[in-house]
Amino acid sequence: MARTAVYQPLSSSRQCIRLLELSPSGSIIKPIECTLRIVELGQSPKYEALSYTWGNGRREEIMKANGQILDIRRNLWNALRYLRRRGAVRVLWVDAVCINQNDLRERTSQVRLMPHLYSRAQQVIVWLGEVPTVPRYLMPWLGLNTEFGASLCRNDYWQRVWIVQEIGKARSITVCFGSVEMPWEDFIAAFRGRKNHLEPGHHCGPLILDNLIRQRYKDGLTLINLIRTYAKSKCEDSRDKIYGFVGLAIDADGFPMDYEKAMEDVWKDAMTFVLSRQLLGEEDPWAFGLFLKDLLGCNRLSTRENSTKPRLAPYHSFGEFTTPLPRLLSLAESDAFKFFLSATVIGRITYLGPSTTEFRAIPSTCDKWTNDVRKNFSADNFGVNKEIGELEWMVVNERNQVASPVCSFKTRTRWYSLRYPEPVTWYPPLSSGSTQSSGEVDLREHLSSFPSKVADEDGCCLFQFKHWKYPAEVYGRIGVCSREAQAGDLICWTQMLDKYVVVRYHITPSGRIEFEMVGTAYLVFQFSKLGDQFWKVATALPVAPDQPYMPLQLHANLDVAYDLAI
Questions:
Q1: Nearest-5° angle of CA 513, CA 563, CA 314?
Q2: Which of 75, 197, 374, 512 could staple 145 via S-S, CB 3.0–4.6 A?
Q3: Spatial distance between the Cα atoms of 499 and 300, rounded to a whole number of angstroms
Q4: DSSP labels for 78-107?
Q5: Domain range list for the chain
Q6: Has residue 125 got a pLDDT over 90?
Q7: How many CA atoms lie within 13 A of 4 on its CB side?
């Protein structure tokens, strides 16, 4: 039955919750019945809070709530059937029933109250499920060195995100499983001191949570530590990988929770919060951003873990690449934050081609592109022909691999330097509005006589680029880039992301050079295959006169940082 028929709306002007009044019954077969009652927190209601595992996504059982049929999951059904055995009405707070899960606005407001609900409960009941049990008096002798004890440690309950807050906030805890009910202290006593009986790589969930309870009073629990420590915990909604710890962390007051927001906005909220509060300390903000995006289940780009991975030292506004500044810089125009990423300039776009859609669909366009590439790199026909063949195969047959790393940035951050980085002095800027560089033709002019027969499906186009020092001898001369790119833009590579970024620069009348990231690119020949030795040489400081690759620090706002981590 639709849940909306069961729930009366909560007051928007007062802090209210629903409590589940569970009717007693000694019969196993009698349906579970309850009444949902709305109460104000200011009335100091007395209740018990249930902590349990939701289980799979199917609602396999039913109960009656306010006389209406309500579908619930099997594990909750077992818990309620056990708890109703006492001869009196039992007042409970159970998240799956007391919150209208279909109302995202209500869900958001009630989740904000959860730390208070568990801390104010008369007791928190931990339900481990219908597991094989033994008499309670045998528990102290049946700890981790038995299959029974090991099965309790492996219980899915200990993998939940929300138990960290539920147990961490509880003043009194009772553990229930099967037909056994016992205080938390007695339950933990059966396991403490027997960790040496655990199998390699196996951790005891009860002891880990017990240590957390003790730590909350000693050192306090920070949001970053909680998120990282319990990154592998399970939840149905990825937002809970963050939201589930807000109520327990000592430094997360005011964190913006909203289940109606898209994952991208949740990521931006989290990054803005930790940066504005300076919660990362010495931790690299970009590395944390990648970790957080992966945690939320967004599209991710894998990073390589090695000792040479560059840290995000900010780019000095006066061009001193080796001078680190504070990692947190606020834009004067807004509350957004800048991310800083070390990169290497490997070349400049000299030739823009057709869209990948046109290249696949119109053979004459494909022929025109390949002929012009051969003309521009006539000194190395063998290498160029090999790259042309590889690019054509990938654009036609491996479309996702080529197009997925390429994107255009909706918003851009512009930064400047009063020092001319070497690649810019050797690459004179094009005249305003120009789409081609001196001495070369732009394929877009040649295509002007060909009416577009297909819509651009990928949002990217083919391009040529030349290395600034060895234009005819270095591989990686063609690829696919954002349609926002222009001839004259720089192609930069960053090892941390193993990604190519299109950077545009402008020289102002005062002589100041301003940079902005336009989008990303895909190269037929991946420079990352050269390995870590390439990165050490490419970023060597000070720069040698014959150094073939030049360092550049990139600036990104939250929008660009999110897009880069695809």
A1: 45
A2: 197
A3: 12
A4: HHHHHHTTSSS-EEEE-HHHHS-TT-HHHH
A5: 3-215, 219-300, 339-564
A6: yes
A7: 3
